[in-house]
Amino acid sequence: MTTPKPKTSQTMKPATAAKKLGIYLAATPAEFQAGVVSREELNAMQAEPPQWLAELRRNGPHPRQVVAARLGISVTGLGRAGITEALTTEQIDALRDENPLWLQHERANQVDVRKEAQRIKESAEKAEKAAKSGAKPAAKTAKK
Fold first, then answer.
1. DSSP per residue over 1-22, as a string?
2. Which of 33, 29, 31 is nearest to 15 (CA)?
């Protein structure tokens, strides 16, 4: 009979934890960047963020995914605009207020992408519903 192994805690690299927390890794404290983060620590930080995490989430700098979401565009759209670095909340707000032409264009692109995704989803749901209801596709006639 074998003895059960002691349960080990799942850990992750700081970069993975930062991504899950939605923060920019380079702006985190040195201890966070140098160590590993357990699943329990991550859950605790999400439930009750320490001061440094709350400050980062509020003022940044923010990773590209967060910047794109706050501007209402895609990460690819940020790249097309030449924005490659992390931005602070203040910089994001300034961009929103300025509303440059490239931002207007990227927001319009994002709206089109979402409409197309919705159309595809509805089309797939309609096809699935038809398949479940027993509707058969048009039968091909066989040649004799």
1. -PPPPPPPPPEE-HHHHHHHHT
2. 33
Asked if 73 contacts 107 with a C-beta cutoff of 8 angstroms, the reply is yes
Per the CB < 8 A criterion, the answer to whether 63 and 19 are in contact is yes
Residue 14, preceding peptide bond in cis (omega within 30° of 0):
no
Residue 42: per-residue pLDDT: 87
DSSP summary character for residue 36: -
What's the one-letter identity of residue 120? I
Report how far residue 17's alpha carbon sits from residue 48's, in angstroms, rounded to the nearest whole number. 15
Q: What is the DSSP letter of 60?
A: -
Structure tokens belonging to residue 111: 């709206």
pLDDT digits (tens, 9 = 90+) for 29-75: 888 888 888 888 888 888 998 999 999 999 989 999 999 999 999 99
Residues in Cβ contact with 95 at an 8 Å cutoff, skipping those fewer than 6 apart? 71, 87, 103
Contact 92, 99 (CB under 8 A): no
Round to whole Å and give the CA distance between 143 and 120: 35
